[in-house]
Amino acid sequence: MEIVRILARRKANVNQSRQQGESNSMALTLISYLNWRPDGVSPIFIASLKGHVEVVKALIDLHGDVMQNTHDGKSPVWIARQMGRLDIADLLSEV
Questions:
Q1: What stretches of the chain show up as alpha helix (H) in DSSP?
Q2: pLDDT tens-place string over residues 10-26
Q3: Over the stretch 31-54, which tens digit does the pLDDT of each residue have?
Q4: Can you identify the CATH homologous superfamily of domain 2-94?
């Protein structure tokens, strides 16, 4: 949670997904924090995948885009459901 607050204070883009060759994005920092490193996904997607409900809530509070899909069309709600995290899927669906 502290990483989300730090990044928000530094005005990081909470909707930025990591692009090939990019090394200094919020997504990359958050992905490193969550110990997961795929390309082309948003911080909310990663937090939903890993089951970090408090991070998802914090990113929503920072106006993170819950509808931002991966390059292959998967949404944060979709991945939350796939991972059995109905609490997160419900949270994302309420936004």
A1: 2-9, 26-33, 43-50, 53-61, 76-82, 86-94
A2: 666 666 665 555 544 55
A3: 554 444 455 678 888 889 989 898
A4: Ankyrin repeat-containing domain (1.25.40.20)
